[in-house]
Amino acid sequence: MFHSLRSRLTAVYLGLIIIGFGGLTLWAGRQIAISTFSDFSKTLQAQAFFLANQLIEPLEHDPAEAAPFVNNAATAVSGEITIYTRAGNVILSSAPTPSNSIYPTTEAVQSNNDGTSTLYVTAEIRDEEHLLGIIQIGVPTLIPQAIVNQRWAGLAFGFFAVSFIGILVSLWLLNTLTKPLSHLRDTAHKMAEGDLSQRVTILPKDEIGEVGDAFNEMAEQVEAVVNEQRAFASNASHELRTPLTTIRLRTEALRAGDLDAATTAEYIEEIDGEVKRMSNLVDDLLLLSRLDAQKLEIGKDQIDPERLLKAVVREFENRIEAKQLNLCNHPVEELVPAVQANMSHLRIVYRNVIENSVKYTPPNGQIDVRLSPQSKFITLQVVDNGRGIAPEDLAKIGKRFFRTDKARTRDIEGTGLGLALVHSILDLYGGTLHIESEGLDKGTAVTVLWPLTPKKENA
After folding, report:
1. Does pTM top 0.70 for this prediction?
2. Using the 8-state DSSP alphabet, how is residue 297 labeled?
3. Listing from the earlier edge strand, what are the strands of the sheet with 131-140?
4. Going by C-beta distance under 8 Å and a sequence separation of 6 or more, which residues neighbour residue 365?
């Protein structure tokens, strides 16, 4: 019954309303009843004193003359009035059967001769020197009780009115609380069923709205990750399928035994190249996987970045000569300090940046490489006049398997993982990568900031 948040909150609100308003109503009613009886008694007492003063003169001359006055006064107070002597004998009474008792207190509730609960008040009738008598007024308690009942009825009406309003307000408040939560639940279920485009749209400006915003942010990240994983699987299968197809075709031709020696050697070389390509792809995927799982340790070696850069550039000498590129590795004007890193990690960064420039710069193109120290970083800048990058593709550079050649032609080798590795390694060490291009065929400028000390070492 109380499994849902709405039912529990409803029970709590109703309980608070009933207990709170009900208890307050009972307390107020009791105080009103006491106050009503007290006020009625004081009013009756005042009337008794007033009548006592009015009866002084009639009692001094002829008590019978006071009978009409006493009867009229009894009718006015809706009760009975009796005048007694000091000894308790009845002098006058408006009641057919007056009480034989004088209650010594100024206020008392007793039963009269008819058995009716009656409130009695007394007052002395005195002249300047003598006690002429005692006046006693008796009024049935039903009269003040009727006033109390009226006030109880007003309180009851107020209780039900306030409770009704309170229940309406509570239901409205519950709706404002549970409706966004229900929408959030339904959205989560739809996402669990596979519709990752679902978002929470009912967002109040409160803590629940903040939860909805956080949920939408999480949903966007989940959708991005899932889409990236789907693209990753598709691209990885494509990158593996192509060399596997080449290897299968070549091995089938070799197995047939109809090839001459030159073609056989060429096919074996192609198979070896495709195997190396797949091996490099698998190595890159494993490295990315370790980076994603945060299992790659930061290097502790002191590396000379200038020396490493020269070694990396030498690796591309044959390709540079083959394309007749003019690669200018500008001399370093200042002393470049050593950086703390793993040699392999820094080599991957430098190699991929330079390799991209060599791959995408046309024959007879120009590549400028500059290495310079800054306050906390070593800056590597590679500027070329190659193919450049379209403005709409700049934001996608560095995403896994993304290549600007949409048809994935083989005129330029690559898997689209190089800059993704660069990004991940730089994130691990606390470095940054900046890529700028004015557009297609307008060249590209790549800037790598590698920290002297990794960010986790500084933390």
Report:
1. no
2. P
3. 90-93, 80-84, 131-140, 117-126, 107-111
4. 323, 325, 326, 384, 385, 386
